Amino acid sequence: MTTAYRCSDGDTLDWICWKYYGTEAVLPQVLEANPGLADLGTHLPAGTLVALPEVTAPTEPDQVDVWG
């Protein structure tokens, strides 16, 4: 089931993902569920509806071990 989030002034998509999913790793899935959303810029206009799709398992991006 998809949830809708109505943006407040200054919201960013990565912050919305962090708040709702607990990770920014789902950003590609959220963008896929919201065609044209990326065209609105970094700070989304107040009142913009963002569809937050159900994701199976949020994963963190691969991490690089700079000390290994």
What is the CATH architecture annotation? Answer: Roll
Helical fraction equals 10-25%
* Broad shape: globular
CATH class: Alpha Beta
Total of helices: 2
Spatial gap, N to C terminus: 42 Å
Number of domains: 1
Which residues form runs of ≥5 with pLDDT under 50? none
Strand content: 5-15%
Radius of gyration: 13 Å
Whole-number mean pLDDT: 88
Order of helices and strands: EHHE
The biggest sheet amounts to:
2 strands, antiparallel
Report the structural category.
alpha+beta
Question: What's this model, at a glance?
Answer:
This protein is α+β, with helices and mostly antiparallel strands and 68 residues long. Helices cover 24% and strands 12% of the residues. A two-stranded antiparallel sheet has the order 1-2.
